[in-house]
Automatic annotation (TrEMBL):
Residues 23-32 have a biased composition (Basic and acidic residues). Transmembrane segments: none annotated. GO terms for molecular function: methyltransferase activity. This is 9617_t:CDS:1. It comes from the Eukaryota. The lineage of its organism: Eukaryota, Fungi, Fungi incertae sedis, Mucoromycota, Glomeromycotina.
Length: 311
């Protein structure tokens, strides 16, 4: 099954500004405000000292006002709760939750180049492993399995044939699986932005990756025949200073991502790296003019209990 993409996708329609702003305002509603009416989580004052993966964590935590969507809060307070973060990166998500839930045991897994260098606490363990070869854990091990932002690292076929099946396999019956992803296409996009994101989507597709994996994940999960209802929540992230601090941080993060792709993507587009840099600057200007944003998704589902799995 190859990745599919159409330039006629409605994601590429340039929304009127008022619609774009309303989409963003809807996304900005605070899901979990504190008792004084302020957000539970705020953004850092600046990100100049943060790496891109850390910036992503703080953006998502602020946007969703939580670190996860699955109803596992009470489970994580248990002394025998086990949590797995697949593709943990520098471990920012794990370190934060390990402090909030000191009774739970957290395991992060990723390749060596991404794993954190700092010392872990007693309830945190990190393991170097190539995810493409499956997960090195026994069946029914974890109460909560979490995975975020690996669209650009894993082919659609591997997601379907290996990754999703493995996430479900290592979850305990009654345990929860949560996958967080974003869509590469932009809403309310200007012409240079549409050119940029179209090229990025086609480049991903040429490598077997799918920049709209969110459309496929529910069917991949359902195909395991081991999970109950698959729930999906969506939120938009605005790009640019027009949306305040979060938009400014978001465009910096996205600019870093496309900068990392400069060599391969400029070659794919048959343009020089200097032309690519000019296109990137136009992109950053257009997100302000058109009030551009993109969408993120949280999928979460519960593995069937033992009685259902036996049927």
């Amino acid at each position: 099954m190859g990745a599919t993409f159409s330039v006629n996708d409605p994601h590429y329609v340039s929304y009127p500004r008022e619609i774009a702003e309303q989409e963003y305002r809807n996304s900005e509603e605070r899901a979990r405000p504190s008792k004084n009416g302020l957000p539970k989580y705020d953004m850092p004052d600046n990100i100049s000292d943060l790496e891109r993966l850390e910036t992503q964590h703080y953006l998502m935590r602020y946007l969703w006002q939580s670190n996860f969507e699955a109803p596992v809060d009470e489970v994580l307070k248990s002394s025998d709760a086990k949590v797995l973060d697949v593709g943990c990166g520098h471990g920012t998500w794990i370190f934060e939750l390990a402090q909030e839930y000191p009774n739970a045991q957290f395991t992060g897994i990723d390749t060596e180049s991404f794993l954190p260098k700092r010392e872990a606490s007693d309830n945190v363990n990190f393991l170097e492993h190539d995810l493409l070869h499956g997960l090195p854990f026994s069946d029914n091990t974890f109460d909560f399995v979490h995975m975020r932002f690996l669209t650009q690292y894993i082919s659609e076929k591997t997601w379907e044939d290996v990754i999703v099946k493995e996430l479900v396999r290592v979850a305990k019956p009654g345990g929860w699986i949560e996958i967080v992803e974003f869509d590469y296409p932009h809403y309310s996009a200007g012409p240079k932005t549409r050119k940029f994101t179209k090229a990025a989507m086609e480049f991903l597709a040429s490598k077997g990756f799918n920049g709209l994996l969110s459309l496929k994940l529910p069917s991949f999960l359902k195909a395991t025949d081991q999970v109950d209802e698959i729930r999906k929540h969506d939120k938009s992230i605005a790009l640019g200073k027009w949306a305040g601090k979060v938009g400014e941080f978001a465009i910096q993060d996205m600019a870093l991502l496309v900068t990392e792709l400069r060599g391969e993507l400029s070659s794919f587009m048959n343009i020089s790296e200097a032309e690519y840099d000019q296109l990137l600057e136009s992109y950053k200007e257009e997100v302000e003019k058109y009030r551009t944003f993109f969408k993120t998704h949280r999928f979460f589902t519960q593995k069937k209990d033992a009685s259902k799995l036996e049927k």
